[in-house]
Amino acid sequence: MTVLVSQVNRLRKLKRPVVGVGCASTGDTSAALSAYCAAAGIPSIVFLPANKISIAQLIQPIANGAFVLNIDTDFDGCMKLIREVTSELPIYLANSLNSLRLEGQKTAAIVILQQFDWEVPDWVIVPGGNLGNIYAFYKGFKMCQELGLVDRVPRLVCSQAANANPLYLYYKSEWIQFKAVKANTTFASAIQIGDPVSIDRAVYALKNSNGIVEEATEEELMDAMAQADSTEMFICPHTGVALSALIKLRNSGVIAAGDRTVVVSTAHGLKFSQSKVDYHSKKIPDMACRFANPPVQVKADFGSVMDVLKKYLGNKTPNH
Ligand SMILES: N[C@@H](CCOP(=O)(O)O)C(=O)O
């Protein structure tokens, strides 16, 4: 996002008629845009689907001084509206159909290679919604190959929530015909997108990296998130979608035990704390919440506290 906002800053210094930067968002693009625009002193305008993003996501653009429109539609409706508006008004569009976003995002691939000491991982798994990310990763890896820094690109996996899975359905139809879907509610709300703007670029990236598309049900993604959290992480539900793909591909043997695999995490878990509260209090209809760790309610007296502690510790063996 800073690549794009820096470019807009330059255009404005050149006296080009750009009154502000706008985006439709499921919560993360708007947070980044509003922060960088605030730093650059450029007005930001964000179109958000009302009641479909977390409070932590909503408050970021508000706090950063963006002009926030809460629109009674879903992300795809917001995207359609901002495209119409930016074709009428001199507002610069910041969603990932703008190639400046992709140029910035592709640096994530370079960072992965650098962290792997320029050895190419076998797999990179990315959660997919509007689908700019998966293409940007491909673009970054391909650029490094063309520069001779590495000799190949990793196999890419794009993982979608089963409730918002147009790419998965397209892949399963062997790329016969793309059909946008109505995105249903998912805990992975940032990828609750039925008509991704970067569909063609994503397909190009997947075909050219011998890629795979996976999907995760609500139960699978929430269980994967809880399992990851219990190992010291604190991931977002979208990362749970990507981890579910890893679990499935590993179980089916597609990803082998020795394969080096990167799972990309796209947001901080603290932005989605309500989903974790719901899971750990086992309040989600039709979900077993197998890895829930609810707090134990106990009376404020020594005996009661000792009783529950002894019961808990009785199940544990000392670690010598
Ligand atoms: N998940 C995104 C949706 C918009 O995607 P973009 O990459 O086209 O900006 C968000 O957080 O808003």
Automatic annotation (TrEMBL):
Q: Where is the Tryptophan synthase beta chain-like PALP domain?
A: 8-266
Keyword Lyase annotated: yes
UniProt enzyme class: lyase
SUPFAM superfamilies tied to this protein: Tryptophan synthase beta subunit-like PLP-dependent enzymes
What cofactor does this chain's UniProt record say it requires? pyridoxal 5'-phosphate
* Gene Ontology biological-process entries: threonine biosynthetic process
Q: Which reaction does it catalyse?
A: O-phospho-L-homoserine + H2O = L-threonine + phosphate
Please provide one cellular component term from the Gene Ontology annotations of this protein.
Answer: chloroplast
Q: What is its pathway?
A: Amino-acid biosynthesis; L-threonine biosynthesis; L-threonine from L-aspartate: step 5/5
Would the keyword Chloroplast be found if you checked this record's keyword annotation? yes
Q: Where is this protein found?
A: Plastid, Chloroplast
Gene Ontology molecular function: any one: threonine synthase activity
* Keyword tags: Allosteric enzyme, Amino-acid biosynthesis, Chloroplast, Lyase, Plastid, Pyridoxal phosphate, S-adenosyl-L-methionine, Threonine biosynthesis, Transit peptide
| EC numbers on record | 4.2.3.1
Quaternary assembly: Homodimer.
Q: Which family does it belong to?
A: Belongs to the threonine synthase family.
Record's function text: Catalyzes the gamma-elimination of phosphate from L-phosphohomoserine and the beta-addition of water to produce L-threonine.
Please give the name of this protein. threonine synthase
Q: Which organism is it from?
A: Gossypium aridum (American cotton)
